[in-house]
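Help needed: design a sequence for this.
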């Protein structure tokens, strides 16, 4: 049985912000609330932010740009998007993104869920919204990615 959310909100504890790869993130809808069908995360990133080119063997990914301008690299395509536009990254397809505006706000859906556990387990709690992102150990993050069937396929895209 899928857990109902009668008021369409999540308990505040489920949406605690954390830092991941220099950007701020929150789990808006954990897979535990959808019987593993999907999870939704929110990301706040700054200009030039770009994760390494990578692929998810298990999840499809749908990015929604809520604010800002972001270039998505999916396979051999480049999609330059702005607020209100979406991009799709099918499982097994290398992808990344690059924030082109001063800041960007994204909602990202993953189906099926579980990958949110990798994000949160490698994150650092963000105690205040105006905190500066702490340093992170990219080696440790990449090492833990194997358990979630995420593999790096290249460096982050650049401007």
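Sure. Designed sequence:
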């Amino acid at each position: 049985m899928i857990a109902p959310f009668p008021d369409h909100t999540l308990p505040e504890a489920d949406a605690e912000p954390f830092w991941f790869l220099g950007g701020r993130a929150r789990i808006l809808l954990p897979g535990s609330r959808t019987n593993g069908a999907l999870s939704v995360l929110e990301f706040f990133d700054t200009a030039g932010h770009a994760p390494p080119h990578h692929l998810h063997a298990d999840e499809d990914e749908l990015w929604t740009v809520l604010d800002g301008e972001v270039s998505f690299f999916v396979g051999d395509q480049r999609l330059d998007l702005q607020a209100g536009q979406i991009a799709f990254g099918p499982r097994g397809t290398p992808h990344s993104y690059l924030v082109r505006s001063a800041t960007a706000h994204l909602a990202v859906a993953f189906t099926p869920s579980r990958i949110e556990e990798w994000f949160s387990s490698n994150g650092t709690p963000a105690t205040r919204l105006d905190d500066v992102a702490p340093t992170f150990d990219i080696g440790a993050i990449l090492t833990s990615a194997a358990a979630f069937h995420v593999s790096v396929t290249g460096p982050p895209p650049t401007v």
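The radius of gyration is 15 Å.
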